[in-house]
Amino acid sequence: MLSGIQPTSASYHLGNYLGALKQWVAMQDAYEVFYFLADLHALTAELPDPAVLTDRSRRAAAQLIAAGVDPERSAIFLQSHVPAHTQLSWVFECLTGFGEGSRMTQFKDKSARGNADRVSVGLFTYPILQAADILIYQAHYVPVGEDQRQHIELTRNLAQRFNNRYGETFVMPDAYITKEAAKILDLQDPTAKMSKSLPDAGTLNLLDDSAVLAKKIKRATTDGETEIRFDPATKPGISNLLAILSAVTDSPIATLEADFAGQGYGGLKNAVADAVVAFTEPFGKRMAEVLADIPELDRVLARGAERARAIADVTVKSVYDRVGFVPAAGR
Question: What's the pTM value of the predicted model, to 2 decimals?
């Protein structure tokens, strides 16, 4: 099992946790897992200040541990600490058509906004590096949000293309997507995924103050009705609140619908606020404990990278041999 997440902000948000990190923790019991901080991908939108990227990378690792990812059972590492990622990505770039890359959602959306000259080549090749991230570990499953299906399909296409040309080399990975909390939506615009690119009022950051979280939830957009039911098509705001409460409390949505039958929206919002605060408070304390010992955190990342390189380097050697690169002397 393999997944990665970008260290592009000081705090992950609840959508990151419910859509990905919660599954990461559960997967430790059933799979050999590799979880990486995608610091290479963090350069694609804009080049962050070096000190900020360093700080955010460590904070991201600390938040993974605070969420329940155990460094003894999971390899936690920085993408930039494993050079094989970019080595394999170049081979895949040469197997990917320009038109195929142009159709990828992130590049298409951002270049369509009229700033094509400001969109980096890194953003264009981002999905190809992402494919290399997955395939280099021969991962069978990749826990992702619903909106990442296109990237998994590209990954599978590239794996099949390479296998057909050079012989069976890569495992064909499958997406692991939860059904009820696959996509957590913005509180102010419940037609859009919760994201750092949207105004902060609709984003529940895991490290937000409890009062701030409660205020955001109580101001969440709902609708003109009074019935609490899960209906994403006609009641996206209420459905989003039910999905959040279900995921945080591990209660089935059907049970929550019955519990809140006949109640107003205010009661639901209060319950969601209480549940979210109850999760984030211990999360923030645990994250602060991890960050209090930076040398140990760096050792955790170093151990994770060592475990990752042991597999990634073998994959790259196999790929390079099959492509026809002359082996380096002494290796």
Answer: 0.86
